[in-house]
Amino acid sequence: MTASETRPLTATRSFPSDFLWGAATAAYQIEGAAAEDGRTPSIWDTFSHTPGKVFEGHTGDVAVDHYHRFREDVGIMSDLGLNAYRFSVSWSRVQPTGRGPAVQKGLDFYRSLVDELLAAGIEPALTLYHWDLPQELEDAGGWPERATAERFAEYAGIVADALGDRVTRWTTLNEPWCSAFLGYGSGVHAPGRTDPVASLRAAHHLNLGHGLAVQALRAALPADRQLSVSLNLHELRPLTPSAEDLDAVRRIDAVGNRIWLGPMLEGAYPEDLFRDTARLTDWSFVKDGDAATAHQPLDLLAINYYTPTLVSHVPEGTEKPQDDGHGNSEHSPWPGADSVAFHRAPGERTAMGWPVDATALYDLLTRVSDAYPQLPLVISENGAAYDDVVSPDGSVNDPERAAYVHAHLEAVHRAIGDGVDVRGYFLWSLLDNFEWAYGYAKRFGAVHVDYDTLERTPKSSARWYAKVARSGELQAPDGA
């Protein structure tokens, strides 16, 4: 049974009056202005300009030019009735070398953006790091090096000093799993390295950097500021109920979920992660006190969810499906899990090939809430890519996206009704944009962007979402 089948589609259901209705973006995906006002290359500038790394050589040099059009984009958010907007800060726009003083023109952009949001009655939700490490820090070793965690804390302090008087919601890292394991393991994301030991080192230093950044933020921000981290937790399902397939779930849970939840929320790494990866490393890069540093009090846990993960056991060294939805590579982003195969469930899929299953979001929310009952949750990303078509009259009708979001909001509402403390929902994404290694080939936006003219056109799903956001009631999309 899907989430949309758990209650009649014609029923309306109310969300809490203080629920956040937002949309999300990331700096490199939308800003453009890649070399303006002191900004220097990030790892994604370098990666996208490397032949063969990104679909048809697409880059974020212009993206959707949000740097120059942010006032227009905030106006669109206001028209859609959003009361919150999640964005990320470009580290290399603020601190081009990843160390030293800030570039004030870079900070001024974010000051202006935040002021525009507040004037429109939209709460800014700031993410410090969404995958765009300054290239100079990567040249010095990147996230596999401990110094990068220390630089990240310094950068966090700079942004807090500049924006702490007007931004209430702060997130340290977005999806550190992708930064570590797609960036340094499988190589399908920047910086494109394929070293399993480096990926584990990167994971640890991302944990450490998170903790150091929280400390820096607490020192610089007013006491009422809300701090979080955004994790793409994998909702795992075994292909069969066999003991072997259940162990496959355990292995991926260790390197996909508990590698973050352990240090950040419990102050320790899971012992089975160490056992699973013992052939690769002795983890001597973890110093005494590191896990305690990563374990800083948080006000929220932000969760990104798109699709469940289906796994099974296979004997090591045998041919196996590797359809994990994270791009094609001869190198695995799952160190210590060579005996695990990935499968895609049958049924409806998005343009990314990802199965649509909102019940997994409900299961994820309830599981996390049961494990950490005192920690409120927020959905910091959820959405879908579809092959949108512009009609002759210029409109974009995307009923599949509206149905996807409706089903997942039903799952959120059901979780709230069952006692899970979910504070908000951020749709991914506000705008069609640069979709990482897929370039401009995949569209997640509620707002269509013509990449030639940069004209913005809200899709039918955006108009439906606006009704939900304004009313606080989940209504069935038109035609459902």
Automatic annotation (TrEMBL):
Residue ranges of the region described as Disordered: 313-340
Residues forming the catalytic site: E381 (nucleophile)
Keywords from the named record: Carbohydrate metabolism, Cellulose degradation, Glycosidase, Hydrolase, Polysaccharide degradation
Enzyme Commission (EC) number: 3.2.1.21
Gene Ontology terms for molecular function: beta-glucosidase activity
Catalytic activity: Hydrolysis of terminal, non-reducing beta-D-glucosyl residues with release of beta-D-glucose
Entry-linked Pfam families: Glyco_hydro_1
UniProt biased composition (Basic and acidic residues): 316-329
UniProt xrefs under InterPro entries: GH, GH_1_N_CS, Glyco_hydro_1, Glyco_hydro_1_AS, Glyco_hydro_1_beta-glucosidase
Keyword Hydrolase set for record: yes
Enzyme class: hydrolase
Family that this chain belongs to: Belongs to the glycosyl hydrolase 1 family.
Entry protein name: Beta-glucosidase
